[in-house]
Amino acid sequence: MKLVGSRTSPYVRKARVILAERNLTFEFIEESAWNANTTVPRYNPLNKVPALVMDDGESVYDSRVICEYLDAISGGGLLPSAPAARARVRRDEALGDGISDAGITVFLERKREAARQDAAWIARQLDKVNAGMAAIERSLGRQEYLGGAQPNMADIACACALFWSEFRLPELGVRAKHPAIDAWAKRMETRPSFAATRPG
Description:
The protein contains 8 helices and 4 strands, in the order E-H-E-E-E-H-H-H-H-H-H-H. By secondary structure, it is of the alpha+beta class. The protein folds into 2 domains: about 1-75, Glutaredoxin, CATH 3.40.30; about 85-190, Glutathione S-transferase Yfyf (Class Pi), Chain A, domain 2, CATH 1.20.1050. It has a 4-stranded mixed β-sheet with strand order 2-1-3-4. Strand 1 (about 1-5), helix 1 (about 10-20) and strand 2 (about 25-30) form a beta-alpha-beta unit. It is globular and about 45 Å long.
């Protein structure tokens, strides 16, 4: 298998974490969709990362599709089989991805020249990030992980979103506001899969 993507992308990191957790062999093709000569459209016509090239040469894309596939071929367990439990995990995975979506929107808007930036739009996206982090804090409660005793797909997605926000939007100070997130993040950071996939 080949994984195409950027080391700083939270969506690519989700897949890299699962590949590391499950000791799956793959080739990492480091590529940015933002480069003028990017090769990403060869693997995803939407020019978005990650893309996973399977052994038969076919590529699949969207991090949720890729992560579900990687979980399935390596024994499963990150997504429950019971419909209601599965829906909750997929909801919280979508929450993590949504936090990343909003944070990246802020990051890109801030890269525009100051006169063209939309302060109201930035504030709206930051509200989404903050509301999403507050929802993670509530979901964690006194649990060690969103998955209870063991991390699941939601933990991976939400942790990747948190760590990306700390990398790109450190002024948000998420852990200082949310003690359950702080304790959970420290547990996630000690996992070799997260230590090996730090951005930067």
